[in-house]
Design a protein that fits this description.
With about 270 residues, the chain is mainly α. About 60% of the residues lie in helices and about 0% in strands.
Length: about 270
């Protein structure tokens, strides 16, 4: 599983001064360095809380710093705690930041990715990243689907994003979200019925299997892709493919899944 250093993420390399986002003073640079160190030491729950609050406040600098730390930990935007029913979704400022953080993730996770529009090659240049992202977003006039097409994102990449998704991918996510509580309840019931360990151990198993179920749906039940997504969700917990295959077989059996929600949209393509 790859990890990403903060200096490798857009707007946080040495060239960030050229973007005009941050002050060039030594005091500001020192403060920024201490901020990044604090974020690197923060627990995941704290990062998610800060990410949501700073996104809601449309605090661009803080949100991008948090986004960079999530990228460093390998955590995709879809796993950062903001749901498709988020109360602030639909506001131009928050939608812009959601889109920028999606692009920030694509650049960090897929450094060789080539957008469909040649003009968007600037997303890979830290000095041009923010300007290029704003160009494709175009003041909110382009839809998430139009952005996904311009950026040449596959379905799997769109599923990792929070905002930049075609309509069919967005509908798939909404359907999955509605279905999740019932599936999670079945998983919990199966564990509590068959597991004789103490309650804390049972709860840990339930949480892990619920996460694996979500990742399996996103991966079309492919073990290796499920393992990759699980690492993205947890911030680097790596599970062997054969272990994941056994676990998701148990999950499918306990939940009696005959038709997976991921069949609503194809697993690949643009």
């Amino acid at each position: 599983m790859m990890t990403f250093g903060t200096d490798d993420v857009p707007l946080f390399a040495e060239e960030r001064r050229a973007s005009g986002v941050f002050s060039e003073t030594e005091a500001e640079a020192d403060h920024h360095k201490r901020l990044l160190a604090a974020l690197a030491a923060a627990p995941l729950s704290r990062l998610k809380s800060l990410y949501e609050s700073q996104m809601a406040d449309a605090n661009e600098r803080a949100t991008l710093a948090l986004g960079a730390e999530f990228c460093r930990r390998g955590i995709a935007p879809c796993f950062r705690g903001i749901t498709h029913t988020w109360i602030f979704a639909g506001h131009p400022d928050t939608d812009r930041l959601l889109a920028i953080c999606d692009i920030q993730w694509i650049v960090a996770r897929y450094p060789k990715h080539k957008p469909a529009w040649k003009r968007l090659a600037g997303i890979h240049d830290p000095a041009l990243f923010l300007r290029t992202a704003d160009y494709v977003i175009w003041g909110g006039r382009r839809t998430p689907g139009q952005l996904s097409k311009a950026l040449n994102l596959t379905t799997d990449q769109q599923r990792e994003c929070q905002w930049i998704q075609r309509l069919d991918v967005s509908r798939w996510r909404e359907a999955l979200s509605k279905r999740a509580p019932a599936i999670q309840a079945r998983i919990a019931d199966a564990v509590r019925r068959n597991d004789r360990r103490d309650e804390p151990e049972q709860e840990a198993t339930i949480a892990r299997r619920c996460d694996l179920w979500l990742c399996a749906e996103m991966a079309n039940w492919k073990p290796q892709r499920t393992a990759d997504l699980y690492a993205m969700k947890t911030g680097g917990v790596v599970l062997a493919r054969n272990l994941v295959a056994k676990q998701i077989a148990k999950i499918r059996d306990s939940t009696r899944i005959n038709k997976k929600i991921s069949s609503i949209c194809p697993p690949d393509g643009t």
